[in-house]
Amino acid sequence: MMLAALIRKELLALIRDPHGLVALFLMPVAFIIIMSLALKDYYSPQTRTLPYALLDRDGGAQAQTLAAQWQADHGTPRQVPEEWRPALLSGQVRYVLTIEPGFSEAIASPATPPGVKVRMLADPGLEHALFRGTEAELAAAVGELRANAIQERFMGMVGQGANAIRNLVSAERVATRVRPTAVQQNVPAWLVFGMFFVVTAIASLFVQEARDGTLARLQAIGVPRRIQILAKALPYLGVNAVQAALMLAVGVWLMPLLGGEALQLAGIDWVALLLMLVMISFAAIGFALAIACLVRSHAQASALGATCNLLMAAIGGIMVPTFVMPAAMQAAAHWSPMNWALEGLLQVLLRSGDTLSVLPSAGKLAAFAALMWLAATLLFRRRMK
Amino acid sequence: MLTIASLSFQYPNAPQAALREVSLTVQRGRVLGLLGPNGAGKTTLISHLAGLLAVQHGSILLDGRPLATARAERPTRITLAPQEYAFYPMLTVAENLACFAAACRLSGDKLRERIAACIAFTQLERFAKTRAEHLSGGLKRRLNLAIALLPEPELILLDEPTVGVDPQSRAFLLDAVRALAQAGTTVLYTSHYIEEIEAIADDVAILDNGRVLRAAALPELLAEGGAQMALRIDWPVDAALGLLGHFGQAQAGHEGEILLSLNPDSSPASVLQAIATAGATLHMARYGSHDLERLFMALTHRTLRDE
Predict the structure, then answer these.
(1) What's B283's DSSP letter?
(2) A278 shares a domain with A247
(3) Which of A84, A245, B86, B151 could form a disulfide with A213 if both were Cys (CB 3.0 to 4.6 A apart)?
(4) Average pLDDT over residues A237-256
(5) Residue A209 lies inside a defined structural domain of this protein
(6) Is B141 in contact with B165 (CB distance < 8 Å)?
(7) What's the pLDDT band for A160 if we cut at 50, 70, 90?
(8) ipTM of the complex
(9) Mean predicted confidence (pLDDT) in B136-145
């Protein structure tokens, strides 16, 4: 009865604080949407949809084959005048392919090609990854064309060269049914951030209650300290659960409507996901309680809570994925509880991980949570003496 | 009911003790007014009684048993209405009362009955559904009191309960304290306002610098004023104290006043005659029954309003 009343009080105070609700629910949703859309092309380079122009100055059979193959893979080229530079610099096309005279002859000849016969001239603003990706595709297409020509000439393999070359290579992601996308990375990342953000709500309310004398009043009427701490913690387990459901729903249903990829949950291990979410929640709430019992003012609560959160997020790969970090930063990321949380979620959502595979992450979070809860209990006892 | 003996307390890292050898008795069914300036130790003393501070030296007995033991059995025998508005501003009056009633281990019909009684006692019926943050200062004080009354305490500690309220609300709160006392509840009431203590207290304790300077029934304290004189003469204070010290206990008061507690064998006339004989000019003389403020000034050498 006592615990239920205090939990009800905590929830009513939270529900009636619109700023707190925005910080807990809308802020991470906004980050998911913004960052997923912003990083969409990073995870899925759009090399095959870039507008381009093709100038065939050779006109031979091999040049026409290359043009047809490129068109099949990259769409119809835009028409540009012979003087193509203005179109490129204005962004009308992102690159121009020119097939120089002598291309067909050079491809079919066993001799060393006499010089550059295909040029790719790109918009100076074209992203590095797109530039290199398109260049590699072009090199592969020309190489394939030349290999086919040589096979035809010396091995008599007419008409089956293309498939023969392509069949030599296979590339696939192992042990997963899920394709990495910006949404698949950002939903777990900002979910972790949002769950840890309960620190500001818990710490602010705690400071308010200490200042108002309500904590002292509860102690004076004999409310045990463990009940007071539980009454703070349990409502936020519910808050974290709602956050998780909301963020996953945003990924699954809202992101496709906004032009992003959908979060893929089919075939994931739900027990592993639940285990990770519970451990993240324990860790986040334990951390929030420790900060709440440590600080003495609203200014300290918002500064210390938010700063710690941002640092853990920045180091832990929430804001910038760890795989784009240099080695030293990647090593540092392993010290952030948010990184343990994110790695565990990615293990489930991206790598089709099962319960066993998330135990290392869950274990680290459980140890962190235990440490934080112990710190909170000791700090609270010291404070109320 | 409550016996405090030689209670001393020093906060960690504080240069001096907040309470020094405090001894007091709180009698059941009476109102004890605790008077003292800021820093006198009132809130520290109250915090001990509310179980917020552990006893370092001395003892506190509730009905002959250590307070900690008695509180462990039933923590709500003594409740506190602190100086701060100790409730949840986001919750309504009724929600606050329900929350604290449950925290006081009340449930079911008893819970509803006590909430209704406390709302009625503090006349908060019209505001039951108003969020506490939207109440006026006076109404917030009433809610603070109502929460403290929820578990029907034997002793209620009211720490500066009228700070920041309008005269009407103050009158209401004082009436409420009188009504509580008449109903048999023991009240320990701290205040800056001497007139409030005079209006409601049966007993008074004057606290300063962590010590109890005087503690007695209010009529007894006021009667002591009958044997007191306040004088102002044109002599230096030290010389005046030397002259008047022959007639009783003399001490310097405010603005050159000398406060003189007459010996039983001294009379006001003999004092005036001695002044005239010594050749001093008398600027002011006052004699008779004084008020609590004058007694407070005599004991502490300052006024509460100065704090």
Answers:
(1) E
(2) yes
(3) B86
(4) 95
(5) yes
(6) yes
(7) low
(8) 0.79
(9) 94
CA distance A267 to A279: 22
Q: Which of B272, B237, B242 is nearest to B255 (CA)?
A: B237
Distance (Å, whole) CA A338 – CA A184 = 17
All domains of chain B, ordered by start, with CATH? 2-209 (3.40.50.300), 223-306 (3.30.70.100)
Domain of residue A212 covers 2-42+181-384
Q: Is residue A201 within 8 angstroms of chain B, CB to CB?
A: no
| Reduced 3-state DSSP string for A229-277 | HHHHHHHHHHHHHHHHHHHHHHHHHHHHHCCCCCCCCCCCCHHHHHHHH
Supply the pLDDT for residue B38. Answer: 82
Instruction: Give residue-wise pLDDT tens across range A310-352.
Output: 999 999 999 888 887 888 998 999 999 999 999 999 999 988 8
Largest alpha-carbon pair distance within chain B?
79
Concatenate the DSSP letters of all residues of A331-369 into one string. HHHTT-HHHHHHHHHHHHHTS---HHHHHHHHHHHHHHH
pLDDT by residue (tens digit) across B262-276? 887 888 888 998 999
Chain A residues inside the 8 Å CB shell of B13: none
Q: What is the DSSP letter of B17?
A: -
What residues of B are in contact with residue A9 (Cβ under 8 Å)?
88, 91, 95, 99
Give a yes or no: residue A176 inside a domain: no
Mean of the pLDDT values across residues A169-184?
73
Half-sphere exposure of B298 (CA within 13 A, CB side): 22
CB spacing of B103 vs A211 below 8 angstroms: no
Instruction: Determine the pLDDT at residue B264.
Output: 78
Q: Which residues in chain B are contacts of A2 at CB distance < 8 A?
A: 102-103, 105
Q: Are residues A112 and A143 in the same domain?
A: yes
Give the range with max mean pLDDT: A152-156, B233-237, B298-302: B233-237
Of A6, A12, A385, the CB nearest to B103: A6
Per-residue model confidence as pLDDT tens digits over B3-27: 999 999 999 888 999 999 999 999 9
B250-256, Cβ contacts within 8 angstroms, sequence gap of 24 or more: B251/B298, B251/B301, B252/B301, B253/B297, B253/B298, B253/B301, B254/B297, B254/B302, B254/B303, B256/B232
Q: Residue-wise over B91-104: b if at least 16 C-beta within 10 A, else e?
A: bbbbbbbbbbbbbb
What's the CATH code of the domain at A110? Answer: 3.40.1710.10
C-alpha to C-alpha distance for B85 and B118, rounded to whole angstroms? 17
A175 inside domain: no
Kindly state whether A6 is in contact with chain B, defined as any CB-CB distance less than 8 angstroms: yes
Rounded to 10 degrees, what is the CA torsion of A100, A104, A107, A113?
A: -40
Does residue B174 contact residue B200 with C-beta atoms inside 8 Å? yes
| Nearest by Cα to B191 from B183, B182, B200 | B200
Q: What's the structural domain count of chain A?
A: 2
Looking at CA atoms only, how far is residue A4 from chain B in angstroms? 9
Beta-carbon contacts of residue B220 (< 8 Å; ≥ 6 apart): none
Please tell me the predicted confidence (pLDDT) of residue A165: 67
End residue of a domain, out of A112, A142, A166: A166
pLDDT in tens, A267-279: 899 999 999 999 9
Q: Are residues A142 and A229 in the same domain?
A: no
How far A375 CA lies from chain B's nearest CA (Å)? 21
